[in-house]
Amino acid sequence: MKVSKWLAVMSAVVLISACGGDDSGDADGDDADVTTETDGDDGGQDGEGGAAVPDPLTLGLVPSQEVDQLVEDADVLGELIGAELGVTVETHVATDYAALVVAMGTGQADVGMFGPIALVQAVDQSGAEIILQSVRFGTPTYHTQWFTNNPDRFCTTDVVTVEDDEGNPYSYCNGTDAAETGPVGEDALNELESGEQILFVDASSASGYYYPATQIQTVTGMDPLVDIDPIFAGGHPNAVLGVQSGEAEVGVSFDDARTNVVEEEPSIGEDVVVFAWSEEIPNDGVAVSGELSDEAQQEIADAFMAVIETEEGAVAFDDVYSIEGLVPADLEALEAARQVAANFGG
Q1: How far apart are CA 293 and CA 290, in angstroms?
Q2: What CATH code would you report for 4-138+283-343?
Q3: What is the CATH superfamily name and number for domain 141-281?
Q4: Rounded to an integer, what distance in angstroms lies between the CA atom of residue 223 and that of residue 44?
Q5: Measured between alpha carbons, how far is residue 75 from residues 23, 80, 195, 283, 317 in Å?
Q6: For residue 286, what are the β-bridge partners?
C-alpha cells in the first residue's frame, strides 16, 4: 500500500489530537472532557479489591453518542463496576481516542475503553495492557459502513428498505442488506471524486477514519490526505446526522450508527442509505494501566466480566457502547489494527 506521502501529515494529526488541539470531540466542545464520580457499595474502603486496585479507579471513555448521555450511562456502568470491586469509580470522558491514550500514559485514567487502533496505540505509546475485547452480534469483529444521502450516485443496485423489530426502516444497497462480513459494495467508492468532502468520525477512530481512509487508497488509488477533504464529525452519530443534513454526500461510521439516533430522527434510516462496508476490524476493548499489578489487572477484568453477566450490567454495557459480551483479548487479531496504524505513522 502506498502510504509514504501520508506519514508526516498523519503524525501531525495524531500529535495535535493528543494535545487536545482539534475539534473532533462533541459538537458542543465545552462538554467534551467531563469527569463524573460513582461510588461502590462501601465507598472504596475495604472492598474485595483491597490495596491491589486503585481507589478511586478512573475509567476513561470516548464519545460514541451525545456526551451528556454518555456521561449518564457511564455513571451507571461505573457504579456497577465499583460495587463489584469495592472501590470508587470515577468516569472520565475524553475528547477523542488520542486524548484517552495520553490520559492512560499520564495516570489520568487507570482503565480505558478503546477502539482497536487506539488499543494498540495505548499499548505502544502509554504502556497499557489489553485485557478484554467486546462482542457484538456474536462476533469479536465489525466493519465501517459507508452511507450517503444520494443513493442515485453510489448505489449500483436497487435500494432495499428493511424494518427492525421496532418497525424502524433502514435502507441499504449494493448487497449490504444481506451481507454478514465485509468488504461489501466497495466498488462504489470509485464514484468518489478528487476533493470530495467525506464525513469521518475522528482522526484516531478505526472504523471512523483509519480503515475507510485505507480503503479509499486501495480501491480508488487516491491519497486520502491529498485527494479527499475530510470533515471530522466528532462522533459516529454526528457523522450520520451530518450526512442526513447535507453537510456532505457521503460519510462513515460503525455499523449501524443510525440506530443511535433513530429516536430523535425517525427518518434517519431512509434519509441515509448504507452502500458499502470495509473489511472486518477487530472489535474495541478494554485496556488497563501497565503500572497496575497483575493481580489488579485480573481483578478489573473479572469485575467487567461479572458485571456484564448481570441483567443490569448487560443493559449498562449496551447503553454505553452497544456491547453484548466480553472475551479475553485476541492479541494476534489486533496485530492487523497495529499494521493499519503503522501505515499512517501511528
Answers
A1: 8
A2: 3.40.190.10
A3: Periplasmic binding protein-like II (3.40.190.10)
A4: 51
A5: 25, 9, 42, 23, 11
A6: 113, 132
Using one digit for the tens of pLDDT, what is the confidence trace for 90-126? 999 998 889 999 999 999 999 999 989 999 999 999 9
Domains 4-138+283-343 and 141-281 agree in fold: yes
Contacts of 251 (CB under 8 A, 6+ apart): 146, 147, 148, 198, 199, 200, 233, 239, 240, 242, 243, 272
State which amino acid sits at residue 249: E
Residue 67 has pLDDT above 90, yes or no: no
- The per-residue pLDDT for range 212-264, each reduced to its tens digit, is 999 999 999 999 989 999 999 999 999 999 999 999 999 999 999 999 999 99
Give the separation between CA 77 and CA 110, rounded to whole angstroms: 15
What's this model's pTM, rounded to 2 decimal places? 0.72
| Residue 231: closest CA among 245, 215, 217 | 245
3-class state of residue 219 by DSSP: helix
Distance CA 84, CA 312 (A): 13
Per-residue model confidence (pLDDT) at position 178: 96
Question: Using CA atoms, how far apart are residues 162 and 63, in angstroms rounded to an integer?
Answer: 28
The ranges assigned to domains in the chain are 4-138+283-343, 141-281
Radius of gyration of the chain from its Cα atoms, rounded to whole angstroms: 20
C-alpha cell of residue 245: 443534513
**Among the ranges given (41-55, 131-145, 291-305), the one the predictor scored with the smallest mean pLDDT:** 41-55
Helix 294-308 × helix 67-85 angle, to 10°: 110
- The answer to whether the peptide bond before residue 256 is cis (omega within 30 degrees of 0) is yes
* Closest of 58, 48, 54 to residue 86, by C-alpha: 48
Confidence category of residue 272, pLDDT binned at 50, 70, 90: very high
Which residues make beta-bridge pairs with 162? Answer: 170
